[in-house]
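Notes for week 9. Today we move from apo structures to complexes. The key idea is that a small molecule is not decoration. When we ask for a structure prediction with NAP present, the ligand SMILES becomes part of the input, just like the chain. The input block below holds both the sequence and the ligand string. Read it once before you look at the output, and try to guess where the molecule might sit.
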Amino acid sequence: MPTERRSLIMLFGATGDLATRKLYPAIFNLYKKGNLKEHFAVIGTSRYKFDDEKFRETVSKSVSEKGVDKKLVESFIKHFFFVTHDVTDLDHYSVLKEKAEELDKKFKLEGNRVFYISMAPNFFGTVAKNLKNQGLLTEGKGFNRLVIEKPFGRDFESAKELNDALSESFEENQIYRIDHYLGKEMIQNIEAVRFGNTIFEALWNNRYIDNIQVTLAENLGVEERAGYYDNSGALRDMVQNHIMQIVSLLAMEQPVAFKDTDIRSEKVKALRSLRVYNVAEASTNFVRGQYSASGDGETKEYREEDGVPADSNTETFVAGKLLFDNYRWSGVPFYIRTGKKLADKFTRVDVVFKKPLVDIFSFPQDGNTLLSPNVLTIHIEPEQGFSLVVNAKNGEQGFHTEPVNLDFYENSQRTKATPQPYERLIHDVLKGDGTNFSSWPEVASAWKFVDQIRRVWDIQQPMFPNYIPGSMGPVAADELLARDHREWIYKLNQ
Ligand SMILES: NC(=O)c1ccc[n+]([C@@H]2O[C@H](COP(=O)([O-])OP(=O)(O)OC[C@H]3O[C@@H](n4cnc5c(N)ncnc54)[C@H](OP(=O)(O)O)[C@@H]3O)[C@@H](O)[C@H]2O)c1
């Protein structure tokens, strides 16, 4: 039986792309499942001159997929209200406050408030400050929680400035920094696989693991996001947040309990032992790329995309080697890569185990092949599942081994029923569970690491473009591993 969550959700940026595409469907799913029932209300705000009626039409459209129960949508949208509001105008906050108080009484919300800022990041600090100063935070038994979208700063300094601004109004445990990767089913499954299985956790260290590989590949280019993307690049857009979060889940020690505070503290400890590179190490251990045009003329090169300057040195691809200086991981590289216009769209983690120290089956004179390393692959998307490569006898005359795959994939029905990241994350906010959000110490450590790479790249001239669409990035990304006598587990044409 789902627990009903009682709250007012005040949404800043209610007419924006994220709200209409992701947030309303996510809130509707919580309503369908009974996590939200009678005791919730949403105040949408933006400068747009909407009334409740028009706003409800927008929300209704955004949740009305084929086969939707129309009566349910009707009752759902009655919980939505609109206040035209410019976040920079102090006078507007009193209207918002009155509306919040009215709805609190009407829906018996007990002073619980979620403030969701789905706006450009330069407004995050302003909104947080004004919410407090203009008396929108409730006092007494209700909760006040602030949800912040990405990006959280563009380097450590700007992130700290933003965090200082938020901290004037909200405590750290009231701030939920969204990293939607943390809402994905298989990312959350990393903890289940590691800490729920002796066969993995017992081997999860530098005695048995040779290296770990994390790949977040996209086959699209920048599409309509060129303005944002060219200012950011793959390092800031993907590595600082999503990849560092995944890596910290893979590298952390077992938390004392499966509780947000315990998990966060282990992730922070792991990130603090991540080696921050000096200039020479950053140049050697990180590779950047930018896509060229495709040979068939189908795809433009990055520098020719609409909104991208012709001399842009923004990277659309990053690969790197991360090293943890701690007892568990000393000597085990974590290789990461992400990029646009790659061969396919997928996210996966490959945990590559060491080969047995002695290979008693290797009879080169008989043409037998060497044992393969065991590889545990966590398929995060689009398929959700695991595969484990083990060596087995190949069933033929004589004694020959071959690698075989043990696979488990979620079936499409179950995958369809799995909550989408925003549904899961909004539910966590309503529950007050910060496990799947980035805490400030995590964000700070990630920026300190990434800033060092950025510093080096900002003074070195890249040789762009350097990879073709449909590939897995520049040759240098393969060389990064070849230098260590390793290779990427996922290669083209597998
Ligand atoms: N879209 C995505 O898929 C996506 C994915 C991940 C993260 N994000 C993050 O989510 C946030 C929102 O993105 P978005 O794509 O939804 O942006 P967007 O489409 O540009 O929407 C921005 C919203 O802010 C409102 N707004 C702008 N200035 C305002 C002001 N002075 N006072 C009040 N409201 C104002 C706009 O409405 P008016 O112009 O009517 O005021 C609009 O509702 C950003 O931080 C973005 O980085 C977005």
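Residues 39 and 108 are 6 Å apart (CA to CA).
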